[in-house]
Specification:
The complex is a heterodimer of chains A (132) and B (104). Chain A has helices at residues 5-28, 41-65, 82-124, 127-130. Chain A has 132 residues and is mainly alpha-helical. Chain B has one domain (2-100). Chain B is an all-alpha fold and 104 residues long. Classes of the chains: A mainly alpha (132), B mainly alpha (104). Chains A and B meet through α2 and α3 of A and α2 and α3 of B.
Chain lengths: 132, 104
């Protein structure tokens, strides 16, 4: 009904977070040693953004396809009466939240794997290179 | 069916990304993540639907299946269009810029 709104809301938050983190990374860029060739956290956040925005957009299209999202107010057909609205909110609280959580868990897995790979790569760098 | 089509598109896209990375400037990673994000969301949808319908979930009516197949294909095409628009706006190879500012 409107489950895609939950991941979309998370996408808004993570997009803002990515912008803030990126600006902080830019500010700290000059103070970092050259050897720190880690993937910036803002880039990792961008992976989550892409999954959330992309998934929400494609799911929104599915809702348009099924006539659940319309181009006129209130935009969601379920919001036209209270019984359907309650059902919609229940779906958002269950399916929507699980969708956002699953995408986030998968992203955390991606971050964990990439961090492990970075550590492994760092260990193989000669000591003189690590000292910069 | 929509989940299957999107997951298939995500898998194909990931294979192409892996074959062309890291030299490629086509921004295929974004398209992969977009399809994987949608696939995960539809997976959750499928699990909730299965919990409601039980085994009937696996025996949809042919009409319903055809509709879902069309929807899945439309979703894949929409994803491609979104990716193309982003690619043309970012223009990593400078092709669009070169075409616009080309002197006749």
């Amino acid at each position: 009904m409107a489950c895609f709104l939950v991941p979309a809301a998370e996408a808004v938050i993570t997009t803002i977070a990515a912008k803030v983190v990126k600006s902080k990374e830019k500010a700290a860029d000059g103070t970092q040693p050259e050897v720190s060739r880690k993937i910036p956290f803002s880039r990792k956040l961008k992976w989550l953004n892409n999954m959330l925005w992309g998934g929400s957009a494609l799911l929104a299209f599915e809702h348009v396809w099924h006539g659940e999202v319309v181009p006129w107010f209130p935009f969601l057909t379920a919001a036209e009466n209270s019984a359907d609205a309650a059902e919609m909110l229940h779906e958002m609280a269950t399916t929507g939240v699980v969708m956002a959580a699953l995408v986030t868990v998968v992203w955390l897995g991606m971050v964990a794997v990439s961090s492990a790979m970075e550590k492994k790569a760092y260990k193989t760098v000669p000591i003189e290179d690590q000292e910069g | 069916m929509t989940l299957l089509v999107t997951a298939l598109a995500a898998s194909i896209c990931t294979v192409i990304w892996y074959k062309t990375a890291p030299k490629s400037k086509m921004n295929l990673g974004s398209l992969c993540l977009m399809y994987w994000g949608a696939s995960l969301m539809w997976l959750v949808d499928a699990i909730f639907e299965y919990a409601e319908l039980k085994e009937a979930y696996f025996t949809p009516a042919p009409e319903e299946m055809l509709n879902d197949l069309f929807l899945g294909l439309s979703v894949v095409i929409l994803g491609l269009i979104i990716w193309l628009v982003i690619l043309l706006i970012r223009d990593p190879k400078g092709v669009v810029k070169a075409a616009i500012f080309k002197k006749n």
